[in-house]
Fold each of these.
Amino acid sequence: MSDNIFQEDPISVADRLAAEALIVDVDGFEGPLDLLLTLSRTQKVDLRRISVLELARQYLAFVERAKVLRIELAADYLVMAAWLAFLKSRLLLPPDPSEDGPTGEELAAHLAFQLERLQAMRDAAARLMGRDRLGRDVFARGQSENVARIRTVTWSATLLDLMQGYARIRTRDEFRPFVMDRDSVLTMEQALERMRGLIGFAGSWTDLTSYLPEGWDSTPMRRRSATAATFAASLELVKEGRLELRQSETFAPIQLRKRDPH
Amino acid sequence: MDDTETPPESLFAAPPMAEQERMVEAVLFASAEPVSVRDLEARMPHGCDAAEALVHLRRRYEGRGVRVVRVDDAWAIRTAPDLGFLMQKETVETRKLSRAAIETLAIIAYHQPCTRAEIEEIRGVSVSRGTIDQLLDMEWVRFGRRKMTPGRPVTFVVTPQFLDHFGLESARDLPGLKELRAAGLLENRPPPGMLPQGAPEDDEVAGVDGQSELFED
Amino acid sequence: MDDTETPPESLFAAPPMAEQERMVEAVLFASAEPVSVRDLEARMPHGCDAAEALVHLRRRYEGRGVRVVRVDDAWAIRTAPDLGFLMQKETVETRKLSRAAIETLAIIAYHQPCTRAEIEEIRGVSVSRGTIDQLLDMEWVRFGRRKMTPGRPVTFVVTPQFLDHFGLESARDLPGLKELRAAGLLENRPPPGMLPQGAPEDDEVAGVDGQSELFED
């Protein structure tokens, strides 16, 4: 990040051409910030002294040119264009006291900070990749020793295996054909088994609902399923001659009683 | 080593012997196989005398923890025989955990404390005894407190060793589904029509079955 | 080691330091991976001081063809960087990293622990699926602890393998780290008002829901 002596140099024709040449390769940019960073280089100043207003002009001109050339720009480029147009107006017009929010200068300073930070990370990445690297410049032991004396098996798995395993199970559900979640469904077989165990104690008329298994009234879905299964199981037991059912009127509670074998 | 003839005259001077010794040292260290004098010289700058460098290097390592040894007509660096007892850890054989075990482990980690029935519910297949025994044996999983539900089933939780192995501060640091998806880990979609029961993995590797016998009560 | 308390009196005296140095030398030579002081001491006889032995060993190898290097809290022997040219045969083809992956890696290294939203904020574009996946797969990056900000997003940190690959003793030794910090370029400065780049942040908040699902009962 060395200071540059051409701080306020007006943009030369060559730089202008270079900026316009960018249009040809709009796909080569990794988003608006990357494009802004490239455009900012035409100013030939330290990023900390960049003219954001000038940069906004360049960017908007770029977007205009793209329109003329009928290059379709991705939405985020247009969002950035709209934002820069707004920033430009804030920077050029005297501040409106009725409007709150950050000033144009604050917004410009943050944009400059973002550009500087992105450039700094790119420089850092380049320095990192330029280091002496294992397997290329520096080498590990080629022949790690294996004295096969004790063979203990250890089982290995990486965090990635673990997460992929979990992801595999969790996404399997997304693709199975629709089936009811079994934990909210009481099957008739389950209800029947339960009722067989309980009817021995049903000497007198008892409300059917009191035979619902514990915990099954927690949600409407579970309650409905348990009621239906218990009712169906009761009908089955009536058919077997082991139970009597009665209901005083439509929608009245259904009651049941053990039927003694004659 | 028998090769004592002088190297051919060269237009460029060979590096000093101390430097040649460094080179031989680095090559022997990094090579997967023993390296012959000829191969050493083929790699080193022109005019080097690998045989002589080996003599120096060999002397330098006398009495050290490693030695320069001759294997047939090639050379290698090996640990000193009297220190073999230190290498026991190197003999450990590492095997990949079976898919069933990984999935079971993942469910315990994400849902702990977690009963066997819950694991089966999530995996959609029954969990063989060997799988959990294996995880218990590895000390990645231990028994948690019993659940206060009918039957008071035992639960499983992951251990500090598990966290240590996977570099986690706590099980809470495991990334969520959304984050897994964002990282591209959920991309491999199973073929459509694949039923949960339809995935009868190599549920247990043969070895695991054998192991379960070992841990039977 | 931080642990400076004197070891408990032992019936057997620890071996002399020269002998301990040999042992450390043998173990480091035998292993391709870095070995921690703790692992060294676990293998060595009771009462040994691997950290001190390492100081001696490191000095002994100064200027040699191989060097004793520190990787995080572990130690390894590696060839001297100036001799890399001899090792063409050993060079492993590393997977070519995309520019996005390289930048993402640098951002994680310099800003760690670092969330996905922060990476996106700095790069100004969303992080594609494969990018972090690739870094995780190479084991240069792993999940760190969750951030104590709304949504408790997961973070990424670099691994010892990353340090080993780039020849760094610790993440504090990243090139230019101090200067970047002094210049305020490692701060997470929130944008004044609304910037288009701020958008990924919301995404992270939505992540809470996905996350909580996992930890239901």
Amino acid sequence: MVEKNIIQGWDVNQMAQKVALDIPDGSYVNLGIGIPEKVAAFVPEGRELIYHTENGLLGMGPAPAPGEEDPELINAGKKAVTAIPGACYFHHADSFTMIRGKHIDVCVLGALQVAENGDLANWSTGEPDAIPAVGGAMDLVAGVKTIYVITKHNTKTGESKIVKRCSYPLTGKAVVNRIYTNLAILDVTDQGLQVKEMAPGVSFEYLQAVTEATLIL
Amino acid sequence: MVEKNIIQGWDVNQMAQKVALDIPDGSYVNLGIGIPEKVAAFVPEGRELIYHTENGLLGMGPAPAPGEEDPELINAGKKAVTAIPGACYFHHADSFTMIRGKHIDVCVLGALQVAENGDLANWSTGEPDAIPAVGGAMDLVAGVKTIYVITKHNTKTGESKIVKRCSYPLTGKAVVNRIYTNLAILDVTDQGLQVKEMAPGVSFEYLQAVTEATLIL
Amino acid sequence: MINKILSSAEEAVHDIFDGATIMISGFGEAGSPIELIHALIDQGAKNLTIVSNNTGSGEVGLAALIAHKRVKKMICSFPRTANSTVFPELFKKGEIELEIVPQGTLAERIRAGGAGIPAFYTPTSVGTPLADHKESRTFDGITYVMEHAIKADFALVKALKADRYGNLIYNKTARNFGPIMCTAAKTTIIQVEYLVNLGGIDPECVVTPGIFVQRVVHIENPAQESKLVAENRRYPW
Amino acid sequence: MINKILSSAEEAVHDIFDGATIMISGFGEAGSPIELIHALIDQGAKNLTIVSNNTGSGEVGLAALIAHKRVKKMICSFPRTANSTVFPELFKKGEIELEIVPQGTLAERIRAGGAGIPAFYTPTSVGTPLADHKESRTFDGITYVMEHAIKADFALVKALKADRYGNLIYNKTARNFGPIMCTAAKTTIIQVEYLVNLGGIDPECVVTPGIFVQRVVHIENPAQESKLVAENRRYPW
């Protein structure tokens, strides 16, 4: 077996940029907390995306200037945001009507594990003393039309996050459409995980060696 | 059997006034189309009732002055109305949340038949060529806390509208709380139809004679 | 760039297909998108299933669509109205189907369709003929019937103001079924009296967020159905 | 005359009883009715079931209520937050129960409670541990789980403005759970920054119609939870 994690591949900004390039103009987009939030910075000029934050805002803008924060204008990560012209506010039942009713085009989420059939685990490690906390993750994967996962390919200890079958509790079954890692972009297809693109210096052999799931070139 | 309909009893305005007197200050009220609408005119000074019209207005006011009608400000009977200060507009799902969710205190409805157990028939005579049209009647009787029926005691041909069992298709089962007719006010109780008040000149014997349902004094 | 504003009602309804299910806003004439309906009559689609609270008045708007035999089936709560003769005549001749739904159940079924809820339980209609053949179930000792979501291929909705994102506000009781119908159709087509710039609608007051709207048409002076009916107008004129 | 405005938070919460189920608005600190919660701490009711998206921060507001062991059970979607230590510690010691509900399912269950819908089906959580022991059912080839309505004895909600009928508007994303919680409680208690005359809220922009509100309290300068936490404040102070 090839030694794991020798190749760093794309950095987080490059991964976010890859995601941003794949989101069509005019899409309604929900960005998960953390790395997915970086996607907004890389949307190409001339493309207009509208950001939904499930706590009740469509048309979320960038973070406010320091000192301009409003504790009642926050995103799902509870960070201060702004609202663009043309934004609107709504309550949670209406917000999840947007999600569950398949009105949102793209959701970008982090992952603990993704399985080769598109199963996603991203809310709990299942440890007995862990405090479960799910938020809107299960609603998003069940309702949004296209689910993109952005994640490091391997854990800090070198284990594959792209697995045959998730060992952690699922967020949703067969919900992921595409996975963006530091090493590759993988499409979830009926045949399995198809490699769409590999980071510079990554060979298919290397990629397969550091991946538990079976890949298709 | 006593000859029917000799005694006229209360007129429609008096019936409406009886209803109005029974609605507590501060109630949220939905008045059905037709005679029930007359109730609003008899609310005593100092009592504030808020009228709900299921097409999307809470805080319905009286009819506008001639020439002031707005075709987009109408009630459930599709007649022009006004909105009081403190009124609000909402869509149909929210409107029926108020109804089905038991937020409306009193609904006053007309009837084809009321049975002694509180069954109400007021939407269809069940004739084979009749075009069924139910509107919000079934929602109102299923959801509003207190259902008052206001109706002539007998049909034009002298038949009792207060029956042992409705022969017309039901609007709701065991939903009516009180019946206001030209001859009497009847409470639907676990024991049966209890006479609360009789119009001047009406005796219990007379009332029972013109009523199919069994009455309790 | 997002711009949902099209130049004509004709363009907005061009792809409505034979056999489509279409939600049409309005309670009586209030909120009825009469110009969009007329464009649909001109367009010619037939065998339609229409979801709308009523069946129109006179021979304009929805009543005209029915009169032209474009409608296979009506799903509504109250098919009779003042001046509605078109639907009753066709119905008595057996030339149009009717699914009668209590008004609140109709609203909730549409809302469920938009919210990704396939079915729900309601107390409305229990013990009545409208609950016949419906599954019922008891929760906490009370009986409810199960009702299914309604979704549509298109929704034709009248609103008051829109911006290019499709954010909408309505006028008074003309709001009625519009906001929920916008959520429940694959393609929602709006006619508005006023177009405004982004930000021209207070973000706290938007009734229909633009995500639920695909197409907007500016109809500056919409016809008033009751006036047309009083004048005995017929569409097409 | 209708006047839902009471003179103090103390008066507004006086009849909350031991064992009550209470919905508390807010997503993080946005929309959290901190003064009403503090009045509830002073009032002393215990063995409460709290329905709220989170569990509070530091030792003020909801976290303080939990710290004072008034809460038997939390129903929420995300009990961990920045600076939330009170709930996790009690939970690990087994001194508080938790029902974890996906955020959208939580919202829809509350909305159903207010709308007279006892149960509904949703695709959310299918195939996950949160669907264990739940009834599932297939509609059109897709599997859904059945979820039940949540109702409450009381709701404590923060809004921006109210009139004496209890009509409400909210501030930005502080709206979150407020409007649906108002519908789902027997007694809904509101704290607002501004009182206005009837008509002071545009009837087209009312978010919560007064019918869903029983009591309103004017809290002119509500505390900001994150500031209190940063200052290491504890309630009672």
